[in-house]
Fold this sequence. Notes:
CATH topology: Four Helix Bundle (Hemerythrin (Met), subunit A)
Strand content: under 5%
CATH architecture: Up-down Bundle
CATH class: Mainly Alpha
Helix content: over 70%
Number of domains: 1
Oligomer: single chain
Structural class: mainly alpha
Shape: elongated
Number of strands: 0
Number of helices: 5
Order of helices and strands: HHHHH
Distance between the termini: 21 Å
Amino acid sequence: MALSAAIAAAVVLGFGSGTSKAAPTKSEYFARVAAICRVYGPKLDKIPPPIDVSIPSEIIESVRKVEPVLRAEAGAVRRLEPPRELRARLARWNTLNERSIGKLREALRAAEKTDLRGIQVAYVAFVVTGAKAQKLGRAIGFPSPPC
Length: 147
């Protein structure tokens, strides 16, 4: 029910309204991002990270739950029309964020093959790239804590 309310709020806030009005202001844009964070943040908080990345079943269980939520959240943010002055930086943030989520998918594939080295390399890349995306997001002005 809460998700339906969030989707309705998104429509009311003008996500993807299809009108030819001016791009949103920074404050309007970040309010929309915060609304998305309020939808996905609690879902992500309920998914524990793997305790030991050298145990494939830990990666599989965690990533199968978290990856679709991260993809949905990233997609919702990506679909927002950004303020003109932030477009280049947001494009970079989107690239880093997608790359980070892609590394998580690589860790899952490695875990499914019991490729311990592959798991560790991909998972570390997920963490490092995610941290870069978060740092850039804070510099851009995303709500804190970041989504």
